[in-house]
What does this fold into?
Amino acid sequence: MDFPSKLIENAVGELSKLPGIGKKTALRLALHLLKAETDTTATLAEALAKMRFDIRYCDTCHNISDTAECSICANKLRDHSIICVVSDIRDVIAIENTGQYKGGYHVLGGVISPIEGIGPSDLQIDSLVERISAPDSEIKEVILAISPTMEGDTTAFYLSRKLRDFAEVHISSIARGIPMGGELEYADEITLGRSIVERQRQAK
Amino acid sequence: MDFPSKLIENAVGELSKLPGIGKKTALRLALHLLKAETDTTATLAEALAKMRFDIRYCDTCHNISDTAECSICANKLRDHSIICVVSDIRDVIAIENTGQYKGGYHVLGGVISPIEGIGPSDLQIDSLVERISAPDSEIKEVILAISPTMEGDTTAFYLSRKLRDFAEVHISSIARGIPMGGELEYADEITLGRSIVERQRQAK
It folds into this structure.
């Protein structure tokens, strides 16, 4: 694609490095910014730079935070005897949005993936073990809330092996089963099979 | 959606103001930037700001440009007796990419749209008339290359009325017909009908 201006070519080039944004979409975004007020672009550029340079990660759970301790870890009303282990910050946001969980988190920062060259040492696994083994630790349960993909299952397996020495800490994983609104006939065999084996008894 | 950080909330808010980008996509983009080197964000923010503040529009054809005269208008090898009138800079890029056109352009900056409150005076129509009526004008042909939508056709009709006083200037419009690879049975009736009425005689 030939551009009539080096400035727009640069902007399109940078925008199209973002995931899911190709050259055509990048050009549409650039032309949108050109048509809008200059303030729009200034605010966007500033918000991005500020986010990237000023962001911090919580020293305890590695969630993103504006301060050394994130708002979840600092919240005295939450139950810090439970830790929910997730791979990504997006998972924290998703679980928080359900409003069903009031414990703490631990963000691994990814999953074990030999193909992408991500090993256990690249993730926040040691710091999770440290949190649990700390003398003043009050942790009673660790929930493994990792997406059930090949890499996710490997990570969960690795973690449960790592954590089984802590006899006093319960390890659980999020329930697998048929999602709300899901049709039985379209569910895959493994999910349907497990949802029958691990059926939930109803209260009478 | 609740965010654990004001910084990320601001960035997601600004990103999701872009066309075709919702909150979820914006969050994915923001987290991608957080994972990448700080340079990536700095370069992106700078490229956007530089584009918005330093961009110029060609004084003659209103194409985007880094200088007062765009590279197309300044090119002495092009045929400046033909002007191709388009609504948008994207159309210039699309036509340039075909490599089939070696004349000049005139970018209107939109199409007449009463619903969006865009009238003829909001577009670069007067400057087109000025270009043609200038005493030293060498323009012999004006090609109306405007998308055949309701608004586009209105704009083309308005333009051809405006330009019909210039007896020495030919007005043409881009050919309508069945696109390459298009199937006759799926073509709409108006296109198919016109492609038969305005059939092109083959050279023997």
Notes: Helices of chain B lie at 6-15, 23-35, 38-54, 71-74, 89-98, 126-133, 150-163, 189-197. The longest strand of chain B covers residues 79-86. The beta strands of chain B are 56-57, 64-65, 79-86, 103-107, 141-144, 170-173. Chain B touches chain A through 58 residues (CB under 8 Å).
